[in-house]
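Archive entry: two folds, one per protein. Generate the first.
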Amino acid sequence: MVDAVASLSIDNDASPLGKITISAGYVVSPSTHTPGLEQLLSEADLYLYEAKLAGKARLAGSTEKQNQVC
């Protein structure tokens, strides 16, 4: 998704890169454990801010394996 938006090459004079970019956060939930929507959105939001802190045009998140309860 990040690369797809970058490949559109849409001008943005307000951006230091000169083009529109996005950063995104994501969470993958195992099918055996389904947390509530609010929890998923909260976690994805935290990853979004992690992506933004890392710089422009970034993606951050967790995988299903990272979310498994041991």
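Generate the second and append.
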Amino acid sequence: MPQATTAPPSATSGTVTTRFRLALLWILFSATNYGYGISELNALQPILTCHSRDSTITDLVLPIATGCIPLTESQFGLVTSLFTLGGLVSSFLISPVSKSLGWGRKTCITWSSIAGIAGGSVLGLSSGIGGLGMGRFFQGLGSGIGVVMVPIFLNEISPVALKGNIGVLNQFSIVLGIFVAQAIGASWLGSDGKYWRAVPLTSGLVSLLQLVATYSVGLESPGWLEGEGKAVVGSGTVARDRADEIRSMLWSAKEVQSWKEGRSSGGARTDEERQGLLAGDSEYEDTNSTANRSSERHQVGLMGLFKDPEVKPGAILIVLTQLGQQLSGINAVLYYSVGILGSILPALAGSIGILITVINIIMTFPPIYLIDEHRVGRKSLMVGSAIVMSVASALLGAGIVYGYKMISASCMILMVAGFSFGLGPIPFVILPELVPSRAVSTATSLGLTLNWTANFLVGSAFLPVKNMLASYDQNHTGGAVFYIFSLTNLITAIVVARMYRYNPE
């Protein structure tokens, strides 16, 4: 296989087709909706926690015309967290379900959009906690499927030279969704008691557009056809022919020819395109290609991830990087930035919250260029990101504890910037690269299940831990909670530095 490097923007147009770009947008709708779901209720809290108005028959018959919904603070928190619960359930189940039912990547994305339509519609047309919770849960189900499948799908349809560039677009789409949700929520639509429902209904509309696009630009993953899809198609030869046909639709003729030549010479493996290897596994060589091809037909289950010597090192790193991403403290900042800064910078807390979202978007662009191993590379971006977040977390904690206002605000922004150029996008980019294709779905499902679990734990435990630690600092701020994130980020940097090594096959 030719060395996998990311191509400069000028080369991209000659590598892929218009159909590839359309398919890319279709896939990334799932990532955008995930980001949208994270923050869509933030600006709506004043409306959804209105206590002065009781539900009436009008609320039930014409819910689109109603104003606020009487929810307590705890009920609002429950509704918000059900999104994470839905994502946890679907991210864990999508791999075994798709295997048992023979679903390809396209079918999984279709179900993601269907769940998004149901969730956005139910949430947008509800007048009580039951409907709101159900809508959020359905949205989470769709997002969980997307979080698992989008990185795999992007990796499997992209030419080798563009895998890094295209993979980063997943994280960019997520932060774009976060920004759009906050922008709509902060507009007159989100602040008006009669029109706030447009915020969740927008999510349903995006999912509807994605579902419609499935029947026009949607297609199956060539990587899935040559791997798990062999059993569904019924023949390895037929699967390969279909995969080549799809590549011909997505890639330029020159790129397809180069791919076929590499495959014929043994330099490329259609169902195992790993570029990320582990430092501790560098001596491994494929000395028995016949046996290896035979083993690819058997998909790896959950327990097999840690029994198969070829899969185990990559599976461990997937688990550690996915946990490291959420335990970095990024969601504590994104969920509670206004509350954290409200006590020390009340006049600027809201503006800083918006600035954090903008920085989050801007800083997703550098990795598209820097991820090239001839520039900075995956490992350096992750290690550098974790170190920046570790230092920023420590300074943020000290700034809050000792009342250094501008240091606190600056370090909170620095945390988001540090996350966005490394720990945000790169764990998703390397996820399908670390294990063989036969283990990708299971390893992805496990890693992202832990990602969702850590997400939920950080979001739900942050304030209680912060309040507990407040009794130990002189100003009772609880800023010491960020020292914990400083430590976890340092551990992540050490783990990646020691375990991960880029070595294209």
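Annotation attached to the second fold: Residues 15 and 115 are 34 Å apart (CA to CA). Confidence is low (pLDDT under 50) at residues 1-11, 51-66, 268-296.
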